[in-house]
Amino acid sequence: MALALLATAHCGPEKENPPGGTGGAVCTSSDKVLRLGKLVHPEDGTVLDKAIVVIHEDRITYVGTDEKQIPCGASVIDWTAYTGLPGLVDAHVHFTYQTDQAPGTLPWTRAPWLMNNNAYKLLDLARGAALATLKTGVTTAIDKGGADYILNPLRAEILSGKTPGPRMYNSIGGISNHKHPGAFTTDTLKGWVQLQVLRGADLVKVWADQCSDQTLDCVPMFTFDELKLLVDTSHQEGLPIAIHAYHQDTASLAIMAGPDSIEHPEGLDAVDCGTMIDKGTIYVPTIDHNRYYKDNLVFFGYAPELSAKFDAYIQKNLESATLAHLMGVKLAMGSDAVFTGFGQNTQELAWFVKAGMTPLEALRAATLHGAESIGAEHEVGKVAVGYYADIIAVEGDPLTDINVVLKGVRKVMMGGRVAEF
Q: How many C-beta atoms lie closer than 10 Å to residue 60's C-beta?
């Protein structure tokens, strides 16, 4: 990443060099000023013309139009040809699900091989995924299940500016019972959550069902009481929790347990939606990731007849998202990006519009709701004072055409740094 510094603000001859002064004296400042043709606020849809955003280090200190608020000597970044938006939040990715596509291998078998045998190669592949994600305008990514020995170094590299990528919030490994079938003691379940805490997770991820990628059938892995204990323990430990559940039978149990977010499910009904609203659970439908699988059957080694099953699942998933939106459930944009899916992170927004959202509502899902799903709504998802300086520039009007966000991202800033692609 490199910072694009296009101009320097000058101040007046006064000895104190007040902000916004005029004249010939030159002063210096480490602050930056971003000028935008327009700035859209997804929370209310307001548009600020000729917006000025002042940035100190990685945070925003002013948003408005008052030239006097420009610090004397601040570096100026000129994006006046574009419309600004908060950096987008991808609420569901897997950066460590990677393959080097070695001959004779398939992605789902190659990924664990790399994790166990070539961690440096895996880290390099994850770097590429992070870059591809950032290029889509995603400046915050929530990794919902990955290896800590890749995710932690990758996050450190990104925050230092060494590696271009989005701000990362990570679940570490996650909780499943694929290797431990049967009932679990209270101490065992609490211990699994506490292990996530000690490994430095930002959130807890639970796989509530196990699904076959050959048949798309799923089997529940936990009871309601077990899910409720995992949720309660996570919250007691101060961590948000996301629960993966593909089909309604498991999803209904998970939703009643009250997680911060529910991932993937189709077949939801009005009762499920009402429960999500009551408990404040955010729905991350990840509709587009099944389109990705359908479009890449050969890559994954899937049978051709799975195409029709993916179509059926996508339709049910879309119907659930449509109902949830109609009833007032908060939805968040999650790509569930894996392998070659990075760089397609924002395609979910097109499905949201198909589900009945306006472009503004889709933007909220891609900013505010994603941030809220992990308790980061006071740090990311807005261009506002005190927030991280995560801002993107698009060409066109994102309030009338969602394709402006899908195809029109022209500039990306993460933490006050402008990414150079």
A: 21
Write down the pLDDT at residue 165: 98
CA 15/CA 409 separation, integer angstroms: 42
- Burial label for 62, CB within 10 Å (0-12, 13-18, 19+), is middle
How far apart are alpha carbons 162 and 223 in whole angstroms?
44
3-state secondary structure of 140: strand
Contact 22, 15 (CB under 8 A): no
- Only one residue has tokens 């996570």, namely 234
Helices (H), 268-358: 270-279, 288-295, 297-300, 306-327, 348-354
Strand partners, 93: 143, 337
Q: pLDDT tens digits for 36-90?
A: 999 999 999 999 999 999 999 999 999 999 999 999 999 999 999 999 999 999 9
Distance separating alpha carbons of residues 126 and 164, to the nearest angstrom:
11
**Calpha distance 188→182 (Å, rounded):** 12
Q: Which residue has the tokens 């150079």?
A: 420
SS3 label, residue 282:
strand
**Which residue is it, tokens 């998802």?**
381
Closest alpha carbon to 333 in 370, 306, 307: 370
Decide: 133 and 90 in contact? Cβ < 8 Å.
yes
